[in-house]
Structure formats: structure tokens, C-alpha cells
Amino acid sequence: MKRRSHSEQHHGKRPRFPGAAASTSPQDEMEDKTPSNPRELTQNPLKKIWMPCKNGLPEKHISQRKVCMTNCPTLIVTVGLPARGKTYISKKLTRYLNWIGVPTREFNVGQYRREFVKIYKSFEFFRPDNEEGLKIRRQCASAALNDVRQYLTEEGGQVAVFDATNTTRERRETIVQFAEQNGFKVFFVESVCEDPDVIQENIVQVKLGSPDYTNCNTDEAVEDFLKRIKCYENSYETLDEVLDRDLSYIKIMDVGQRFLVNRVLDHIQSRIVYYLMNIHITPRSIYLCRHGESELNVNGRIGGDSGLTPRGKAFGKKLSQFIQTQGISDLKVWTSQMKRTIQTAEALDVPYEQWKVLNEIDAGVCEEMMYEEIQDHYPLEFALRDQDKYRYRYPKGESYEDLVQRLEPVIMELERQENVLVVCHQAVMRCLLAYFLDKTAEELPYLKCPLHTVLKLTPVAYGCKVESISLNVDAVNTHRERPENVEVSRMSKEALLTVPAHQ
Amino acid sequence: MMRGCSRTRLTQNQGTAVCMTNCPTLIVTVGLPARGKTYISKKLTRYLNWIGVPTREFNVGQYRREFVKIYKSFEFFRPDNEEGLKIRRQCASAALNDVRQYLTEEGGQVAVFDATNTTRERRETIVQFAEQNGFKVFFVESVCEDPDVIQENIVQVKLGSPDYTNCNTDEAVEDFLKRIKCYENSYETLDEVLDRDLSYIKIMDVGQRFLVNRVLDHIQSRIVYYLMNIHITPRSIYLCRHGESELNVNGRIGGDSGLTPRGKAFGKKLSQFIQTQGISDLKVWTSQMKRTIQTAEALDVPYEQWKVLNEIDAGVCEEMMYEEIQDHYPLEFALRDQDKYRYRYPKGESYEDLVQRLEPVIMELERQENVLVVCHQAVMRCLLAYFLDKTAEELPYLKCPLHTVLKLTPVAYGCKVESISLNVDAVNTHRERPENVNIHRTTQDALHTVPPHV
């Protein structure tokens, strides 16, 4: 089975008809298909999806709904003065959309400018009377829009985030026309903020480290950047309730304290608005760990609902000590509804909440089996899983792809919260980690999440700092690497080559 | 179990996904008459209750109607009518008193205080009331100046109001428009500057535009999301189950079997029915189980598969007959009859779990217009309970027979439901709650209500 790249994976699934799954097509209309003979169904062996077939072969790639996004691609356009968080929002939104399965890419015009104008001299480049500068900036914006068009029309992209100041109505109108010509929907995201502390913090966090200022000291950089902002201020035309009443947009004011939302057109825009209204920039840390070592772990068995081994319990105690040394005010603790995570949280002696959606991936008919047994009873399934571990669904069970959908409310609530410790499971933790560290669908199922190790995630600049803290309690290894041979015809030995040792 | 979690107020929410809020929330509507406040209040209340947040609405107009038995005319609402003002203030107080009781003594989590609340003074009174009692306040204002919308509003819900039972249409409309005028001069809309410390959402022009200020917690965030997704465009939602399946006929639950010949016949009838309905742009959704997909295939239109529409997972009881469940798991079978909503099959799900999993479907149904959902018995019961405002106790026993389509059309404050049987015979899969739900009951008592099967 061909491995598809992240951006390709949805190509065939993108609905081509207004709000519809591609279960029929214009070609079908021309066939002699009488309604009295509905098509036979076959179940796709990888994802266990029922699809119509002819002579036993699948006919059309039906769009199974994770999220039905939109019929046409969406162009998200940021608006705002420098240091208002546009790039922060762009990157975060891109990460979120990709994680929930919407192929998204950001296009930062500043980056195009940096590639064009190799060396940044000073704010003078941005002066509104600098003809040369204006010309270059316009060219960069055009180049970026050109790449946007290519991404959305030829590379299977669903959403493009056009990250630039876009502070004049004229510039925005150009973009709207570009979108109309290409059949893209436009959604503006404006960030308005006049709090000098927030702007200062912004500059310190992300501008000082910018390639533009590698050869400046802090004070010089800050001074230059403030002058840069000034260059935009006179011509800044904020999105207006009256003048821009026909546009679709969200105006974020004062770092999320207030929002103005206009003409949300479809599902994806609604989700974007919901997401943007839930994120915040208050410093905090998210701790992810698995339950302590369980009885089934030790026996090399997957799934189930077993209790902790003595070492697993020891981890619980170490975890409690670790949490206390972290000195976190108001730490929320979340577990799944499986015994092993709850037992682990109990050792912390603090209140915790149980989430069913944090339960481990359902291995269906393979629940409580050892990999050796899966190979023995279901060698085909075992091979398919190795071929595409992200999309593979266990018979009567789930796939990583399903897990991500089920975990989306957890991510949304994590965004809302501040300090949280999530005690969960291997596959679940991989999914959550992939969101924070922007991992692809291919990387996600192989992320290393060993037992008895806490990952501390702290948002910093545009991303996430991750510290891995092993609590020094031995545990069995449960990480199975992708073997070399993933062919259906492979031998047992090859299939089991990477199974970690167990009792 | 969970210790010390301040959220134990939600007695039935043990183990449910999210801790809603630490303290109760008071939602306060704001707006001139005929701006949809009661529509929003009722809908929001229905949604919150369905997702498991105990919510009740308190309509001050209702208190007024109980106090002033007979409504004479708009004169009652004149701003210079001292008597009227006094009565209205008393009614608001009485309602707030009931709010306090509901939130502090009756286990309520959210109260919706539905009144015009058009002056800053009145709102300030409410804010103080909330502060004294430890409630969070969230304002929901509806602003609309489109005369067509207001007219339609009056026709849809005011003409039928108890206030106007003895008037003809023209009289009622004329009086009501004068009633609105009584409020206009003193109307102080929520202001970006003056009210910057309040938490609120201002809905403008029936959802075209929103101003959202200081969303404080999860429940407010969910409320905002919901309010931003609902609309009032007329449409219908069609709910039905898959055609009769092989396992159905054998009295077995769950599984992933295909349709019987009668089930396939239903598919054809469904196709004809849909065509006669003449719906433009009908969306069709199915689960990812073979039987719903087979049914949709017969419609010969595009459809979308949703995994979250799959039937309730019966865990270890999958593909069993009720007789076998009684045989192998008599305790489980009795527990299920004792509390069918909360009961979770071993390694399976409960109706309560189903509701949580179906919430995104409801949200998307709210966004959409004409939709046909081809699903399953337990799933359909959950969706139906949302539209028809059924309690957790009623939900698992709602009748959703095979080969019957339910057409739901929003009307006034609720939902009209038409049940259309497509006249294709099918086995009955509805098991009523037996009289004896005691764990020591006899097998005969347990199986008393099992519908006949092959």
C-alpha cells in the first residue's frame, strides 16, 4: 500500500459536490444504473469502511465523515499591526486544523520578504513613502498568493492561512478578488490590541529572535521594531462593522477578551471561531504521562482494563512527589475511565476528573492479545496495521484517526485550561503529543511515550518546549517500532521482529 | 472514586467528560420584545439539559400572566404605569427567587432568566443578586431591527400567546407593536465600553454578527458556540433507522449485519418518499455500519458516513439475543432495566455515553438545513430526545420502529413531528421496561417484554 504524504491523504476524500460525500459522480449518471439494483458493498480492509463495489472491487472513495469541512478551499487572512499575534495565531490554527485532519498550510509574507531582501537593515524598509520597499512587499504578497493558489488547487490543500498585516481595505479587497477568481472562501482573522505590556512581551518573545534582528542588541531591536509598527499605524483600517459587513471575519480584541464575529459561512469557519475563542496566552504547563505499569503491560498484552503492578504503584508515588516539587498552583488532573489511570491518579491524593474519551484505543477483536497472538490469529490485519498505522482500524475497534476525532474535545479543553496533568495511555498520549508538537499522521503512531516518564509541555514563542522527565521506576517497554517488512506475505519472524520483550 | 471534586454538584455527571463550572450560572436574556429571547432561552435550555447540564428557564412574562390573570392591552407596559411597573418588578423578584432555589437547593446548574432586561439598572440588580448568591452571570442579548423578522416573530409566537387569545390578528399585531414601543425609549443595549466587565454575547440580526465579551469558563464557551451555530431558516430533519437487518430478525442486538429483503424494500420506499418530499439540497448522513449504508445506497444520492452515528456498543453483549443476555448476565440485564439511561454494557457504552458522542452531530444538524439521518435505534432515540426535549428517563424508551421516518420541523418554540410509516413490514425491536427490575427476578419476569423474533 502506497504511503501517502500528509497533504495528500485527503485528496481523494475532499467532497467535490456541494456538501456531499463522493459516493456518486457525474460518470455514474451516465451508466445504466437502475435504482432497483443498489450497489453491493465491500469493506475496506484497512479502515473497515463499507464502500460500494463492482465485482468485488471498490468503486468510489466515499468520504467518511470525520469532519465535513467545506466544498471549496478556504483562505484565512490575518489582519493587524505588527506584534499583535498574527503569526502566533496562524501557526497555532494551522497546527490545530492539520491535527483534526484538515490539510492546512500557512504562508507568511514576512518570510517571503526575508528570502527576497537577504539582509534586513532597519524599519526604514517599511516606511510608507519607501517606493522600493512597497514594490518588494507587493511582489512578496503576490508570490505568497501564488503559492496559496497552488497549494489549494493542485496540492490537495483545504485551508491556507495568509499571514501578513493586510491593514488596508485596498489590500484586503485585492485578496478577496484573488479568492473569488479561484473559487476560495475568505475568512479574515484580525487581532487588535493596544495594551503596551502585551505588545512589549510579544516583541521580546518572538521578534528579538527573528532573523531580522540577529545582529542587534535588545534595546536596538525593540526601538527599531516600535518604529516599524508606527509605519503601519497611519494607514491602518480596522475591519469595520458597517464598511466590511459583507465579509466573513472574526476580530479578536485585547488578546481574547472580546470578539466580533461576522458572517460565519460554514462548518470550518465555525470551528475556527470556536478554537480562536478558546485559546489563551497565559503561561502554563501541560503534563502528559501514562498510567503506571499494568499487569497486562508486563505480559505484553494490549488493551484491557487491568490494575497496576507494584512498580506501577511505585510510579504513582514518585509522580505524586514530582507534582509537589513542581509547585503548581491549581493543577487540574485528568484520567481516563480505565482502572490503571485512576489508580495512578489516586496516588496523587488530589481531586481528579475522569474522561471516557481518554480511554485507550479500542483494539476490538485484538483486545488483551499479545502481538504474537495477533500475528497468529490475524496476520493480515497485523500487516495492514504496519502498512498504515495511523489509518488502520482494528476489527470492531478503532484507528489512531478515530482517536484523534474522539480526543478533540480534550484538546479544546486543554487550550482553555491552564496547568493540567493528563494521566492517560500510550496511543492517546501519542495523539495529544502530536497536537502539541505538530507531528504528522505518519509520525504520530510511532512517537515514543514510555511508561513512568512525564512529558512537560510549556508554550514558548510559536511552539512548545518539551521536557522529558523519567521518574526512575523501571517498567517494561511497550513501544513496537515499525518492522522492515510490512508485506502481507511476510513471515511471522519478520512481523514479530520489533516486538518489545515481555514475560 | 473522585474525591473532593467541587463538581460533585452534578450528581449524575460522575465520570462525564467535562467539569462544567464550579458555581452555578445565571444566563440573562436582554432585548426588546419579539427579538427571539424566549426562543433562545428554550432552545438553549433544551440543549444544555440534553448534554447533561441541569438547566431551567424562568420566563418573567409567565409570572406576570399568573399574577395579572387577564391581559388587557399594551397600556400595562407603559413606562408611566406605576401599577404595572410595580407588578413587573414583583414578578421579576419572584422569578429570581425561584432561580435561587433552583440553583442552590434543587441541584440546578444553569438558570435562564428570560425577560427584556433592557435597562442597565435592571441588569445591575441581577448582577448583585448573582454575586450575593455566588452565581456567575452571562448575558445573551438579541438585537434586531429587520421589520420582516420582527413581524414573522409576532405571527409565529405572539398571536398564539395567552395574552391575545381574544383578539384577531390585526388587533394583536397592533397592540404588540405598541408594547414594543413602550420599551424602546429606555432601552440600553450592552455597550462595549460601559459593560466591558460583564460576560455576554450580543447576537445581531439573527446571527449574522456576534459580539462576545469575557467568556469566563467552559459552559459559557459552549453556550457561545451553540448560539453561533443555530439559525431560524425553515427546514426539516428526517430521522429513520436502517432497513430491517438479519440480526434484527433473529432478535439479536448490535453487530454489523446486512439488510433482509424487507430491509432492502424499505430502502426503495425510502427513496420514493424522499423524492416526493421534493427537498432541495438534502444532505444524507449514515453511520459506518453496513445496514445504514446499504439503506442509503438505495437512495442513489451522495451521503456521508459518520462513525459517531454507529449504534450503541453493547460490549460483551454484542450480537446476543435478550434471552442470552438474561442467561449469561442476569445481573447486568436487571441493572439495565433499573436505569437504562446510565447503564453501561461491560466493555460497551451507555445511552449517556451515546449522547456525549452524538453532540457534534446535533451541532452540525443545527448548522445544516434539510438533512436525512439514517441511523440506529438507540442513536435515533438520543437524537429524537434532543429535538423533542425528552428527559433521560424517557429517552431510552422512545419508540423508533423500523421502516418509519420521523419528519421534524421547527415551529414556534418547539418541533413538529410527523411519523411516516413506509408500509414495509418489519420485526419489532422495542423492548419495554418490564415491571420487575429487581436483580432477583425470575427469567420469565425479565423476558416478559422481549418482542417476538425468529
From TrEMBL, chain A:
Superkingdom of this protein's organism: Eukaryota
Active site, UniProt feature: H291 (tele-phosphohistidine intermediate), E360 (proton donor/acceptor)
SUPFAM superfamilies noted in UniProt: P-loop containing nucleoside triphosphate hydrolases, Phosphoglycerate mutase-like
UniProt feature, compositional bias: Basic and acidic residues: 1-10
InterPro entries linked: 6Pfruct_kin, 6Phosfructo_kin, His_Pase_superF_clade-1, His_PPase_superfam, P-loop_NTPase, PG/BPGM_mutase_AS
Region (Disordered): 1-45
Pfam families in UniProt: 6PF2K, His_Phos_1
Family: In the C-terminal section; belongs to the phosphoglycerate mutase family.
Designated name of the protein: 6-phosphofructo-2-kinase/fructose-2, 6-bisphosphatase 4a isoform X1
Species annotation: Cottoperca gobio (Frogmouth)
From TrEMBL, chain B:
Record CDD domains: HP_PGM_like
Domain of life: Eukaryota
Active-site annotation: H242 (tele-phosphohistidine intermediate), E311 (proton donor/acceptor)
Lineage start: Eukaryota, Metazoa, Chordata, Craniata, Vertebrata
Residue sites binding substrate per the record: R241, H242, G243, E244, S245, E246, L247, N248, R291
A Pfam family annotated for this UniProt entry: His_Phos_1
Domain 6-phosphofructo-2-kinase: 19-234
Gene giving rise to this polypeptide: pfkfb4a
One GO cellular component term noted in the UniProt record for this chain: cytosol
SMART domains in UniProt: PGAM
Protein name: 6-phosphofructo-2-kinase/fructose-2, 6-bisphosphatase 4a isoform X5
Organism: Cottoperca gobio
Family, per entry: In the C-terminal section; belongs to the phosphoglycerate mutase family.
Keywords noted in UniProt: ATP-binding, Hydrolase, Kinase, Multifunctional enzyme, Nucleotide-binding, Phosphoprotein, Transferase
GO biological process entries: fructose 2,6-bisphosphate metabolic process; fructose metabolic process
GO MF: 6-phosphofructo-2-kinase activity; ATP binding; fructose-2,6-bisphosphate 2-phosphatase activity
